[in-house]
């Protein structure tokens, strides 16, 4: 056991294999030099490569269409839709850098692009992921401001929307830059074919542990609190309106649909980020406990998959966006007859249409 620990301590700074391997020279098993078939069967690597390819095939068109449609159709350029475009841009960053690099690496069965590419991929994927994560919180807070009117006659303007987008990139950089300067580091994770922050290394005077705790509080706990608070207040506001209009079928339908959408949005956030946070916290609180490195790749897969299901939740469930996308794809005609006259977010529109005149400022 002592010999194994000494061999781990002698590993270069570019990688760390979080398991005991029966070899006198662990450096020879570097994920930058040789296939990592000692960590899993070739079939597992190929399956992961196929999944990453699927994310690329689905993620690029969905997010690119969001940006293109917003540029093409003036009615989509509402202030409340700015953050959806911001979310699409962040997702494209993750897909084009993170998912493509992971696809190539899983196909080769090792990180063939080298240590520098690993740091670039880890930084870009973390930045895009953090911007995406904070965008979900900003979406919720914007809806809260517009619908619940906590500031009275406050008018949500374009400058506020741009500020919200800027905040997501500032917070994303705050979260993703530190590993480039020594607070944690970007190394191959799981099956060693994608890169992320170092959750594993021990005996580093709480360097990695403190970074994980920072990410958990600042990039998971705080945004989740904003989302739960904002959507919770939104539902309470709509329920109060629905109670005043018990005989209105439109109000009751809006309440049901918005409640369903809010549940989907919160669950989408948790599916995306809870596995990553739970895994990282488990590792830093159970130092020395063995774990399957294959399972360690699952949290990264969930976070990268968000580049597909977040647009589906936040864009495709927006009737106006969906209609414009279908018109663009099918050359001017929507094959499903979507009504493209609905303005703004479907969630915001449904609520505001039944509550704008009845709901007093919170």
UniProtKB/TrEMBL annotation:
Cell compartments where the protein resides: Membrane
Membrane topology annotation: Multi-pass membrane protein
Region forming the signal peptide: none
Gene: SWS2
Family, similarity comment: Belongs to the G-protein coupled receptor 1 family. Opsin subfamily.
Keywords, sorted A to Z: Chromophore, Disulfide bond, G-protein coupled receptor, Glycoprotein, Membrane, Phosphoprotein, Photoreceptor protein, Receptor, Retinal protein, Sensory transduction, Transducer, Transmembrane, Transmembrane helix, Vision
GO molecular function, one term: G protein-coupled receptor activity
SUPFAM superfamilies attached to this UniProt entry: Family A G protein-coupled receptor-like (SSF81321)
Name listed for the protein in its UniProt record: SWS2 opsin
A GO-annotated cellular component: membrane
TM helices/strands, residue ranges: 47-71, 83-107, 122-141, 161-181, 211-236, 262-284, 296-317
Renumbered residue ranges of the record's region Disordered: 340-362
Compositionally skewed regions (Low complexity) per UniProt: 343-362
GO biological process, one term: phototransduction
Principal place of residence: membrane
Pfam family, one: 7tm_1
Positions of the G-protein coupled receptors family 1 profile domain: 62-314
């Amino acid at each position: 056991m002592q010999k194994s620990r000494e061999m781990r301590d002698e590993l270069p700074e570019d990688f760390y294999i979080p398991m005991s391997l029966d070899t006198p020279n662990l450096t020879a098993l570097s994920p930058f030099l040789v296939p990592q078939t000692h960590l899993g069967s070739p079939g597992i690597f190929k399956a992961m490569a196929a999944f990453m390819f699927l994310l690329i095939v689905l993620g690029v068109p969905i997010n690119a269409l969001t940006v293109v449609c917003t540029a093409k159709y003036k009615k989509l350029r509402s202030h409340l839709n700015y953050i959806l475009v911001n979310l699409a841009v962040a997702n494209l960053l993750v897909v084009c850098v993170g998912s493509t690099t992971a696809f190539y690496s899983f196909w080769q069965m090792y990180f063939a692009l080298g240590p520098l590419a690993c740091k670039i991929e880890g930084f870009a994927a973390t930045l895009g992921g953090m911007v995406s994560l904070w965008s979900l919180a900003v979406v919720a807070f914007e809806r809260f401001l517009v619908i619940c009117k906590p500031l009275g006659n406050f008018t949500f303007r374009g400058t506020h929307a741009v500020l919200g987008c800027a905040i997501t990139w500032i917070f994303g950089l705050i979260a993703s830059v530190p590993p480039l300067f020594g607070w944690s580091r970007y190394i191959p994770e799981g099956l060693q074919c994608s890169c992320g922050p170092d959750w594993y290394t021990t005996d580093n005077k709480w360097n990695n542990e403190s970074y994980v705790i920072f990410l958990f509080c600042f990039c998971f706990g705080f945004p989740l609190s904003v989302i739960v608070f904002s959507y919770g207040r939104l539902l309470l506001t709509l329920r109060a309106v629905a109670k005043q209009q018990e005989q209105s079928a439109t109000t009751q339908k809006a309440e049901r649909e918005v409640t369903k959408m809010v549940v989907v949005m919160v669950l989408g956030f948790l599916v995306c980020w809870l596995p990553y946070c739970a895994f990282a916290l488990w590792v830093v609180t159970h130092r020395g406990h063995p774990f399957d490195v294959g399972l360690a790749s699952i949290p990264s897969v969930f976070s990268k998959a968000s580049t597909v299901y977040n647009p589906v939740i936040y864009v495709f469930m927006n009737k106006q966006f969906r209609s414009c996308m279908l018109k663009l794809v099918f050359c001017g005609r929507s094959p499903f007859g979507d009504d493209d006259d609905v303005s703004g977010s479907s969630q915001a529109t449904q609520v505001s249409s039944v509550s704008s005149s009845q709901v007093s400022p919170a």
